[in-house]
Amino acid sequence: MNTLSLLYLNSKWERQDYAKASNWFERAAENKSMYGYFNQDRIYEEGLRVERSQAHALALDKESSSLGHATSSLKLAKVHSVKNASSSDLEVALYYLKKAAEQSENNNIQHTLEKCQKSQTCNNMELGKLLRFLSTKNQ
Question: Checking CA distances to 92, which of 40, 100, 126, 130 falls within 20 to 30 Å?
Answer without folding.
Answer: 40
